[in-house]
Input
Amino acid sequence: MLPPQLPSSAAPPGDWRLRSGPSITPARARRRARAPVAVLQLAAALTVAGLATPSGAAPAIGGCPVFPPDSVWNARVDTLPVHPQSAAWVATIGSAKPLHPDFGTVYAGAPNGIPYVVVPAGTPGIAVSFDYADESDPGPYPIPPDPPIEGGPASTGDRHVLVVEAGRCRLYELYAAYPNGDGSWRAGSGAIFDLRSNALRPSTWTSADAAGLPVLPGLVRYDEASAGEIAHALRFTAPQTRGAFTWPARHEASSLAGAQYPPMGQRFRLKAGVDVARFPASVQPILRALQRFGMMLADNGSSWYLSGAPDPRWSDDELHALQALTGADFEAVDVSSLMVDPDSGATRAAAAADGRTAVEFHRASADHYFLSSDPAEIAALDAGFFAGWARTGLSFRVQPALDRSGEARSPVCRFYGRPEAGIDSHFYSASPAECQAVVDRYGADWQLESPEVFVVALPDTATGACPAGTVPVHRVFNARRDANHRYVTSATIRGQMVAAGWIAEGYGPDAVAMCSPAVP
Output
């Protein structure tokens, strides 16, 4: 049996239907009843060992970060919701078209891919003139003698020139770059980025890329792949895009207006169900990056052409194994919940494990969500003790257990649904009556793990209004036998989950389940 739900549009107050919540269990769920103790013991051991929470290898080039750790380029998207337009956009780009690695060793006598070069700080700047001067950064650009040019010196293609200035950590990018006889250069457009900053280009400005984004952070680089992890988003092209752009892009390059055309900057990811292990080991890091970090639509070009830097160490044959994947293996992602400011590439920082923040985790294999405010438990999850769980990037503030300061404060109970009952999920409630009802009526299937994991405020049971200084937390139920709930402060995400078939549960017209203390 499953615990009762709060009132919702699907069930009037007093209708005790059966619902429930997430799990941090390993696959052998019969061992899970003792897991809370195991989690705390492991986390304590990690603390003694001084093990830091792993967050992936931060991308760096020439001793410089490739944008800050909280950059949208470095944000995981594997647990974010699928965009409502995903199917239409994939069909437009080509659901049967193969993924194509547009990089490797050598093609047509030139290095295959988009090259870059690192120069020391203080390298003399070179004057560059631009065809699109009104949307280009004037420079000068520290272009070294004989820099690598995309396609080679004789290329008639995009001819990107990318330069990282070490020490100052500046990225200089040119499109359609040609040297002049006097030592200066000319280019179609150019952009300069501070690799330590999340600043975006002015809205509607191009860059060396049609989307107004930097090119370098989206490249597949051999050194990262060979090290086993690519911890950032990648870059790809599509033949038809809409005359619009979406965050973090700044520019469009199309006259098409139909909703079936994807906008510049749209993020896509490889579906979680794709078995990466069946591919050559050398390309598995690329596929894992596509599942975790995804790829941004950055330019008009051939369908699903994935960009990378040339390197003689690539195996072209093994790279070509990526062509076994097609557009049908990808889905568009809604990254709107990551955005802090439309004019910044910063994302909402990972919540600190301070006992005052309920951090959300997701397990893609079961599509289950889980909450914890316990620093030791969060550390164990971050450390990978329970395989498959990853932060979603979402969280909300709470008060520690026993802290009743503030209006209408109430403890939140936590139950675990036993696997042998077909549940394997957690359930949280701020309603004392609901907590007691679960104990009284469903105790055989639901184990009370704690009567008070943290404290929140209660909404008005008639209107759903939260006390002053708090924000609504919405609860949605997955409407399945495995009984999982999600708890979010975003009404947008709540709406997306409901549109995907989840059921809103809570008080008042907005279905508010509890109220989170507002962030100071």
In short: Residues 1-56 have pLDDT under 50 and may be disordered. The helical segments are 35-49, 86-93, 222-227, 284-292, 316-319, 375-382, 432-442, 491-499. The first helix runs from residue 35 to 49. The radius of gyration is 25 Å.
